[in-house]
Amino acid sequence: MSLVFVFVFCHYRFFRVLAAAQTEKKLRGAVGRICVFSGNTGMEPKLYRPPAEVRGMSSLDRDAFTQTISVPAVRVPVRVLNKVVKSLKKSSIQRPGVPRVVQDTEENADYRLVLLDPHRVTSPTSFSEAEAEALRSFGVPEELHHYELKLTYENLKSEEVLEAVLPQGQDVTSGFSRVGHIAHMNLRDHQLQYKNLIGQVIMDKNPGVTCVVNKTNIIDSTYRNFQMEVLAGEENMVAKVKENGLTYKFDFSRVYWNPRLSTEHERVVQLTKWGDTVFDVFAGVGPFAIPAARRGANVLANDLNPESHRWLQHNCKLNKVEKKVRTFNLDGRAFIQGPLREELPALLKEKVRVHVVMNLPALALDFLDAFRGLLHQEPQCEENLPTVHCYGFSKDDDPDTDVVKRASQSLGFPLEKLCSVHFVRNVAPNKDMLCVMFTLPKEVLYRVAAFTTTGTRKTWKSQLDGSLSGP
What we know:
Layout: H1 2-27, E1 67-77, H2 81-87, E2 101-103, E3 111-115, H3 129-137, E4 145-151, H4 158-165, E5 177-179, E6 182-185, H5 195-205, E7 211-219, E8 226-233, E9 238-243, E10 246-251, H6 262-269, E11 277-280, H7 289-294, E12 298-302, H8 306-318, E13 325-328, H9 332-349, E14 354-358, E15 387-394, H10 399-411, E16 419-428, E17 431-439, H11 442-445, H12 456-461
Parallel strand pairs: 6-7, 11-12, 11-14, 12-13, 14-15
Antiparallel strand pairs: 1-3, 1-4, 2-3, 5-6, 7-8, 9-10, 15-17, 16-17
């Protein structure tokens, strides 16, 4: 059996190579835009590389990227065209804006040319056995033709354009965060002299992006939002985004929004149930508060940034949960020692499940001391104590241990055996974002602590009705 198989296989390969050689001899010397490939074409590994003249370009000249290259093609009768295209899907050309099928250069209406990937197909023997068998079954000769293809800027990918323009040996970035119509980049120092060109390329290559911004190193010390520089497009920073089935609108230049946190938002919200109460201490524009309210929780949401508070109110209306969310514009500590302290005793007495979300990873762990002795004047309740979800950054070699240690120090109570740590994401080399989840210990909540809330009650009482006057 094995000898028969070897004989048949060798017989097949012999006639296949012979047929290719005869075809090559027959058509050798063909001129014009189509001719037969003869074995190895000697094409460059990066055939699509733009002209060398674009290197160092600081102002985008799209015409400078135009060039003509030769790509392989098979000549296919129109009657079997669709079947051949389907069979050669893996070997056909894959370029933005480049058609797989073009008119026959010999102007024969009964034939078309199927363009192939020049890096994958370099000779008639480059086809897989399945592809070669398909061509034979459809009566298509396994001969390759040259097709002179005009490549333009529109046919190049963003990374190909930037790699050709930026100095050799330097990192090329084409990555960004998408926030509605805005592409948000974090350019490195060596890329800044090309920032406007990079912005224009990103906008050109990503449909729907009409504004490209770069994060500067300037941070608002009060609200922790980064300053933005517009690199290309319109200076419209009011974005509208979808996350987990909900809609959010906000001024991206004046509030904090990170599309990479959508999974984390959903994870925590899934822990809430209908009838729960959620205190969102650093609510932003509502990515925790609004979906929790949609699930049936009663939410008290707070943010110190007036712009975040304004858009939080707007987004509650936008998602039709304004009756389930009360909003506050307070410092996080004042919110804990004001509205949260006022509401918590009744909730514990009624055995309502309570969640406290503290998503300000740069500072939230330091705010945990606000819970010390928070209910020291109230009757103790040992059941159904609040669940805290507190976020933090860590650069430590053991980030889990680090955030638990810092949380324990802030609370004044050891959490090592009472909490769990969830890894959220890596935000920079050697810098992780984590979430510490724990039940607030009664020893912390009811201890007699030396702090005062004088003045805070008057500050937040006027906002208790949570009036929702959106943008």
